[in-house]
Each structure stands twice: as structure tokens, then as C-alpha cells.
């Protein structure tokens, strides 16, 4: 059973993951309204991933008899000045989540919670990928701000190249058997 401090930190992170889910959903809707379907699809997928992360954390706490708590969250930002702003917001959010996950890992290590540390390692790896992906997308969107259809073409190629992946066998299970 994890320490109270570790369980509290994971419960807090569940809220951050649900907030990220809501923010990505709001970004996806913005891009749908802008008739940028690939950008929308990318962020709808990101929203599901963030929800999945929260569900993984819930399942871990359930498995550890640590009583997950589903916190309330603030409403997401829904108005943007241009097509770059949402991606910049998403990158900043991913960097913040990385710091939060690293703090949870440090807490697990400081408390000799080996199971907790092992669990959170998957999220560290995931955050490296998320920051890299969002950073690359921001670069593309900044370069092609005046050519949104080229952004769409880029994302269509990227999504086609990554389609059909087998998934990560080390991914923690989600509560209720849900999947992203």
C-alpha cells in the first residue's frame, strides 16, 4: 500500500489528467469549428489519452486499496486568438504535467515506494513522447500559420504513418477495462 502522501499526489494528478482531457477536448472543438479536421482529430485523440491516464491512476489506487478520489476541475480555455495558441497552450500543459509526474516519482523514491516508482515510470516515458510530439506540432503550426491546409496535410501523413500501431504492452491497465 502506498504512503498517504503518494496516494494524495496521485489523486491530485488524476485531477490534472482530467483537466488536460477537458482542455484537449476544448482545443479539438476549436479546430473542428475552424474546419481543420485533422487538427481536431489529433486533439480528440489527445483528450482520450489524458482520460486514459487518469483511469490508469484510478486503477492503480484501486489495486493498492488506496481509495481514488475524483476531484473537480476548472473549466478549460475555450477561446483562442489564432490556430497557434491552442498548440502553444498544449505544449505548456505537457511541460507542466511532466514536472508534476517527475515530482510524484521523486516522492515515491524518497518514501522507498518501489511499486509506486515503477508505476509512475511509464508516465515519465509517456511525457517525453508527449512533449516532443507537441513541440514538433507547434513548430509546424508556427511555420505554416498562413497555410492551414498544409498543417492538415502534415497531420494526415503523420497519423497515417502511426496508424495500426500495436500499442505499448507496458501501459498500465485502466479502471473498468477502458482503453484510449
From TrEMBL:
Taxonomic source organism: freshwater metagenome
Sorted UniProt keywords: Iron, Iron storage, Metal-binding, Oxidoreductase
One BP term from GO: iron ion transport
InterPro entries in UniProt: Ferritin, Ferritin-like, Ferritin-like_diiron, Ferritin-like_SF, Ferritin_DPS_dom, Ferritin_prok
Ferritin-like diiron domain mapped to chain residues: 1-145
Cellular component annotations (GO), alphabetically ordered: cytosol
Stretch list, region Disordered: 158-180
GO terms, molecular function: ferric iron binding; ferrous iron binding; ferroxidase activity
Protein name: Unannotated protein
Amino acid at each position: 500500500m502506498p504512503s498517504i502522501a503518494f496516494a494524495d499526489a496521485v489523486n491530485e494528478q488524476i485531477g490534472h489528467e482530467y483537466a488536460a482531457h477537458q482542455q484537449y477536448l476544448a482545443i479539438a472543438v476549436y479546430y473542428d469549428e475552424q474546419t481543420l479536421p485533422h487538427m481536431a482529430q489529433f486533439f480528440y485523440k489527445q483528450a482520450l489519452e489524458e482520460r486514459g491516464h487518469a483511469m490508469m491512476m484510478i486503477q492503480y489506487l484501486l489495486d493498492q486499496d488506496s481509495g481514488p478520489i475524483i476531484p473537480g476541475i476548472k473549466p478549460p480555455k475555450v477561446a483562442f486568438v489564432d490556430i497557434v495558441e491552442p498548440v502553444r497552450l498544449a505544449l505548456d500543459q505537457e511541460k507542466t504535467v511532466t514536472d508534476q509526474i517527475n515530482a510524484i516519482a521523486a516522492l515515491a523514491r524518497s518514501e522507498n515506494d518501489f511499486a509506486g516508482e515503477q508505476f509512475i515510470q511509464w508516465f515519465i516515458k509517456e511525457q517525453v513522447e508527449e512533449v516532443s510530439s507537441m513541440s514538433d506540432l507547434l513548430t509546424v503550426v508556427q511555420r505554416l500559420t498562413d497555410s492551414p491546409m498544409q498543417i492538415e496535410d502534415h497531420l494526415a501523413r503523420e497519423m497515417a504513418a502511426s496508424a495500426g500501431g500495436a500499442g505499448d504492452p507496458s501501459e498500465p491497465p485502466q479502471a473498468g477495462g477502458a482503453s484510449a
